[in-house]
Design goal:
Blueprint: E1 3-8, H1 23-31, E2 35-39, E3 60-64, H2 74-85, E4 89-93, H3 107-111, E5 113-114, E6 147-149, E7 172-174, E8 181-182, E9 189-196, E10 203-210, E11 224-227, H4 235-238, H5 255-258, H6 261-277, H7 292-295
Parallel strand pairs: 1-2, 1-3, 3-4, 4-11
Antiparallel strand pairs: 5-8, 6-7, 9-10, 10-11
Length: about 300
């Protein structure tokens, strides 16, 4: 069993992608036997949990980066870096353009995320042409509520393995009209899966894994995964009837609603993530234990 902190980078807001919109992910992790603390950040100063993460008894951080730049303070980011250096596993999930750009504070994990560069004209790179207010990176993998095919090299990464398909791998992810860009930099970074734009046909990375990365003192840092979008895990992308914030304008799809079997297989990916990110050793990361009850 892992002790997982599932957190967003914004304060509570019912009309945004706050933690309430990741309830199905929370439930899936708990159904797999994991202890999950699900929360938003508190205020805009140092977050009381993130800024002390390396002192707490969490094994993993699943960070839904739904901010536009102010989602992590310097102390928050430093604590996350220390957490990885002591073996903690970290998953980050951002979205299009600069959504989640606070992740750039996270060293090599931040470097795995590419965001819009406001100093140059990147309009020619735009992939999703249906929402002109959203700039690059914005890969169009499909409508919210639909599936997108997953492309992977062989042998497939352990994160994609499943006994539920004839191919032995996870073949579909939830789609999103404008996914972000994640890149594999350095010998410890591996592309786990790729998607294909329905607008341009371009391939893009859905997930990048970091494994075996050395810390400054020579020890091995905790594993990490950078996801191209948090919409792989959002309630709305698993079940469009759960609703979306009022600013979401694109019409949803119906593929997952009409045939949820692909989503059932995708939940194997969620479980694989929790297993793969778990620190080596039965005890995981030591520290002060935090529960949902203590934060309520």
């Amino acid at each position: 069993m892992a002790h997982i902190l599932l957190q967003t980078t914004i304060t509570a807001n019912p009309d945004d992608w706050d933690i309430a919109r990741f309830s199905l992910l929370t439930a899936e992790l708990r159904a797999a036997g994991h202890d999950v603390v699900a929360r938003n950040r508190v205020g805009h100063d140092d977050d009381p949990v993130l800024s002390t993460l390396d002192e707490l008894a969490f094994d993993q951080l699943w960070l839904m980066a739904v901010d536009t730049g102010d989602g992590l303070t310097g102390n928050d980011a430093d604590a996350i870096l220390r957490f990885r250096r002591r073996g903690g596993g970290v998953l980050t999930a951002r979205d299009h353009q600069d959504l989640g750009c606070c992740l750039t504070r996270l060293g090599s994990l931040g470097q795995a995320n590419e965001f819009a560069d406001l100093t140059v004209d990147q309009s020619h790179l735009c992939d999703d042409q249906d929402t002109p207010t959203i700039s690059w990176p914005n890969y169009h993998s499909g409508a919210n509520g639909d599936y997108q095919p997953v492309f992977a090299k062989t042998p497939v990464h352990p994160l994609l393995r499943t006994a539920r398909t004839a191919s032995g791998r996870i073949e579909w992810f939830p789609a999103h009209p404008h996914e972000g860009a994640v890149l594999a930099h350095g010998p410890w970074a591996t592309v786990v899966a790729q998607g294909r734009s329905r607008a341009s046909g371009r391939r893009f990375n859905l997930a990048v894994a970091l494994d075996g990365e050395p810390a400054p003192d020579g020890t091995v840092m905790g594993r990490a995964v950078a996801e191209s979008t948090f919409h792989h895990f959002a309630d709305y992308n698993w079940d469009v009837s759960s609703g979306a914030p009022s600013f979401v304008a694109e019409p949803p799809g119906t593929q997952i609603r009409d045939d949820p079997s692909g989503l059932t297989v995708f939940t194997e990916y969620v479980r694989n993530l929790a297993d793969w990110l778990q620190p080596a050793g039965a005890g995981g990361v030591e520290g002060v234990r935090v529960t949902n009850a203590a934060l309520s």
